[in-house]
Write a structure and sequence with these properties.
It is built from 44 helices and seven strands. The protein is mainly alpha-helical. Residues 876-937 form the HTH luxR-type domain.
């Protein structure tokens, strides 16, 4: 029986939603549903019904067996852009970074830029280049099919693109909805779309009985199908359109209520495919079965090598059993069809086909190791399976695709037929991959499962548990669980003192946990005593790295001398990988201390070593803490976007991106975005302060105190101050209080608690007295100034704030310098000093240049209070649509959903003045509603 191409039935609302979203770019549309539900058909129907115009359609596909080729689906889609590209001279120069990835259009791209030393920076440049390329092709629809099979790199890239898509781009992704657990976006929990981006999720459910009848009628060209037939069809197919189609293709007719029963079984897809296969010649059957064995789209030569007869492929295509895909490859229209054919192949024939697939794939210039491992396993060749699987995992890890490396090893470990002698080495391999990579969620689950089994030797068990503890402490940010595993591992490593030394050295890092510094120093001494007699250069380097890190973190005067002993030029990769980790820690610690010139040197050397040794974790930490250094040193231009872009790459490891969340919170505080600041400070560690990175938690607490004070919430500010100071006091590392203590003293003093405030100043002074920490000493002067001002000792306050301002300016930390300068100006004003007005004027300009609009508005309010006028820069009169500086500030807060009263509080204006500014913003932007206002660029 002939059945035409299926009609789109029962999807009118979904089709309308999809078309409306795609025609209102920038847009992100996620089409979700189970296999065979009609996701692809809906997208194709929508694309065919788009309004006429010059809108490009770019198609990319994810596959169930993937090799380590990050961003492959997107690059596949971009191969079709050549005809839409503008002249090379008009392209953004950054698009030249894609020449090596897109050889088909390399001639149309600008020259390749110089390679970057930092792999994270290189990846971000590729992301920017892809976004710029998409922006250059005008209105376009980027379709990525089967996102559930995407590699982590592709997901990261799509998060980047969909977080801030080009103006004319609509991104449409199809994916299978998860069938268990809590529903979540395929773009990750951290994905947030912008207010000006159309964002739609189109869920597809099975068809009801009426729609199944309509679909069957359209497929069979019948309007008189018996109701009993339709009911039975719906029951047996569960309303899945693809199954309905394949079942109807296998029916000889649809007469009578028993037609479905006459088809064989209750209309399962494998029965439908069997009927279709029965009409093919042996040659065509061989081609179809070869494709089922290969699983992923393949070319004619490979299909022929597995299936035998080249004539069969053409017949299978003409019969519609196989379909031609992009780049001369062929495959099934749906994974369900592939599975149905594969399951019907007799076992011995399947094994023979997998053997032929292995031979053909091994003959390739660059054999796909993941596919080879798959075929070896299905062929029953255990030795080849272990060989190819191990090589695939190692290659993936080398290329930075740790997630795939873990996926391969995980699949092998979970296989019941894996020989017991190989489980231990694979478990160790998995734990080592995890310790040097960024992925952790699946690893933690699997390693815990491995540790519950009894196939590991005691020494191997200890090493796996130690690596699990490191992953939990570092990548997962779960210090309590990580420390528990490390302590348990130390008990299991009694006969392996070198590994035990690594465990003690890990515990010795003082930035984590609630133990006092003295305990960390004791653990460090244990590690050093164990490693002293060990002949293990990598271990010695690891312990030395932690000692240098500890000394720098606490501001020890000996820190630089210890750092100078690190074996930076050692020829062994494992040793230099430990030095790369040390330099990332040294950069972070020097940034906290205010030693920014030294921090920059550590960063440069650390990036070089991380690139040379493939150390992902240190590379990310360097990038993250560099964002914090940029904030401290006043490099705020584009900082919010840089931080957000880097944060997009940390969706699985949000707890090690706390520097980024701290910076985003501090920037939000400086611009009066109260809700955003609160949310980011919580993410930076205040959500679980005892389990987070202590120096960042202390800084976030300082920001939260300032936020409460800015909102007039004195009691919460005091409570936050007391909790945060107690944490630092318990740890005993007072140099970490540079962004906390001045705020805490201010909150206590404003609440009239002068004695506790004075005691805190004294305790802080004693705690940092012999420390190498210029930021902490400047903070001490700031805290003394705040205390003096609260005690009405304004002359003393002027001196303290002035010294702090000068120290901060020399570091340089211009925002902190301006904040100290504001304290100085207010103290001068209290003394009746006429220079206060000039000070506030200069400070308002400094804050505005940085982008600290709330701080600038506070200084302008002080000028108004003393009767001094202040003129804001205005837009050019020739262009009446250009927003002035004040209007841009108002527009930004309107776009965030703030009320006029809230805007007035942030900008120190009257509500009536804000109402006037809002009306002007709406008129200049040509919109009717506040909800249509987008954040100014």
């Amino acid at each position: 029986m002939s059945v035409p191409s299926p009609a789109l039935v029962g999807r009118a609302a979904e089709l309308r939603t999809l078309i409306e979203a795609v025609t209102r770019p920038p847009a992100v549309v996620l089409v979700e549903g189970e296999a065979g539900i009609g996701k692809t058909r809906l997208v194709r129907a929508a694309l065919g019904r788009l309004p006429s115009g010059d809108r490009g359609v770019l198609l990319g596909y994810c596959h169930p067996i993937r090799e380590p080729f990050p961003y492959g689906p997107v690059f596949e889609a971009l191969r079709d852009v050549e005809g839409r590209l503008p002249p090379t001279r008009e392209l953004n120069p950054v698009t030249g970074a894609l020449r090596g990835h897109l050889p088909e259009i390399a001639h149309a791209l600008p020259p390749s830029p110089e390679p970057l030393d930092d792999p994270r920076a290189e990846r971000h440049r590729v992301f920017r280049a892809i976004r710029a390329l998409l922006a250059s092709v005008g209105p376009a629809v980027l379709v990525i099919e089967d996102l559930h099979w995407a590699d982590d790199g592709t997901r990261d890239l799509l998060r980047f693109l969909t977080g801030r898509p080009p103006e004319g781009l609509a991104v449409v992704a199809t994916y299978r909805r998860e069938t268990h657990g809590a529903a979540r976006s395929p773009l990750g929990r951290a994905y947030l779309h912008q207010p000006d981006t159309t964002y739609v999720v189109v869920p597809l459910a099975p068809l009801d009985a009426g729609d199944v009848g309509s679909l069957a009628g359209a497929l069979l060209d019948r309007s008189d199908l018996p109701s009993s037939f339709v009911s039975r069809l719906h029951e047996r197919t569960a309303g899945i359109p693809f199954v309905v189609e394949e079942v109807l293709r296998s029916l000889p007719d649809a007469e009578g209520p028993d037609a479905l029963d006459r088809a064989g079984v209750p209309l399962l897809l494998r029965e439908a495919m069997a009927e279709r296969m029965a009409g093919l010649s042996p040659a065509a059957v061989g081609a179809v079965q070869a494709m089922a064995v290969l699983r992923v789209p393949a070319g004619e030569q490979l299909i022929t090598a597995v299936g035998g007869d080249p004539a069969g492929l053409g017949e299978a295509l003409r019969a519609g059993v196989l379909h031609e895909q992009a780049d001369g490859r062929y495959g099934f229209r749906h994974i369900l069809a592939q599975k149905a054919v594969y399951d019907a192949i007799p076992g011995p024939d399947r094994r023979s086909a997998h053997d032929r697939a292995m031979i053909a794939l091994e003959a390739m210039d660059s054999p796909p190791l993941v596919q080879l491992a798959f075929h070896a396993r299905r062929a029953g060749d255990t030795a080849a399976w272990l060989r190819h699987g191990t090589a695939a995992a190692q290659r993936a890890a080398t290329l930075g695709d740790t997630a795939l490396a873990i996926e391969v090893v995980e699949g092998m470990l979970e296989d019941a037929d894996l020989p017991a002698t190989h489980r231990g080495p694979l478990a160790l391999m998995l734990s080592r991959f995890a310790a040097t990579g960024l992925s952790h969620q699946r690893v933690v689950r699997l390693l815990r499962h491995v540790l519950r089994d009894d196939f590991l030797s005691p020494g191997a068990r200890g090493e796996v548990r130690l690596n699990l503890g490191v992953v939990l402490s570092n990548q997962a940010g779960d210090t309590a669980a990580g420390r528990s595993e490390i302590l348990a591992a130390l008990a299991e490593l009694s006969d392996r003192p070198t590994l035990a030394a690594r465990g003690w050295a890990s515990l010795a890092m003082p930035g984590w946990g609630t133990d006092p510094l003295s305990m960390h120093q004791e653990w460090m001494a244990r590690a050093e005593s164990l490693v002293a007699t060990a002949d293990d250069p990598a271990l010695a380097a690891a312990v030395r790295a932690n000692r240098a890190s500890l000394e720098m973190m606490i501001g020890s005067p000996d820190a630089f001398a210890v750092a100078a002993t690190l074996p930076v030029a050692d020829p062994r990769t494992a040793v230099r990988r430990e030095v790369a980790r040390a330099y990332s820690n040294l950069h972070d610690a020097a940034t906290t201390l205010g030693l920014h010139a030294s921090a920059e040197k550590f960063a440069m050397e650390g990036r070089r070593l991380a690139t040379e040794t493939g150390a992902q974790y240190p590379a990310f930490l360097l990038a993250s803490s560099t964002i914090r250094r940029d904030w401290l040193t006043g490099r705020w231009d584009g900082l919010r976007d840089r931080a957000a872009s880097l944060g997009e790459l940390a969706t699985e490891t949000p707890l090690i991106a706390v520097d980024i969340w701290l910076v985003l919170g501090s920037l939000a505080l400086a611009t009066g975005e109260w809700d955003e600041a609160y949310r980011w400070f919580q993410a930076a560690g205040l959500d679980a302060p005892d389990a987070r990175y202590v120096p960042i938690v202390a800084a976030a607490a300082g920001g939260m105190i300032d936020l409460h004070l800015a909102r007039g919430a004195l009691d919460p500010a005091v409570a936050e101050a007391q909790r945060a100071v107690a944490r630092v006091r318990r740890k005993g590392v007072w140099v970490w209080g540079s962004h906390l203590i001045p705020s805490a003293v201010t909150a206590l003093a404003w609440a009239g608690r002068m004695k506790p405030a004075a005691a805190l100043v004294g305790e802080y002074a004693e705690g940092i007295a012999d420390r190498m920490a210029p930021t902490a000493h400047a903070a001490l002067d700031t805290a003394r100034g705040a205390l003096a001002a609260a005690e009405q000792r304004h002359a003393d306050a002027v001196g303290h704030f002035a010294r702090a301002r000068e120290t901060y300016a020399g570091l340089p930390e211009p925002y902190a310098a301006a904040r100290a300068g504001e304290g100085e100006a207010r103290a001068r004003l209290a003394l009746g000093d006429g220079s206060a007005a000039a000070g506030f004027t200069e400070l308002a300009e400094r804050f505005a240049r940085l982008g600290a609009t709330h701080d600038a508005a506070r200084c302008r309010r002080a000028l108004r209070d003393i009767g001094v006028g202040f003129q804001l820069p205005k837009g050019r009169r020739r262009n009446v649509s250009v927003l002035s500086q004040r209007e841009r500030e108002v527009a930004r807060l309107v776009a965030l959903g703030r009320t006029n009263r809230e805007i007035a509080d942030v900008l120190f204006l009257s509500t009536r003045t804000v109402e006037s500014h809002v009306a002007t913003v709406l008129r200049k932007l040509g919109v009717r509603s506040r909800t249509e206002v987008a954040p100014p660029a």
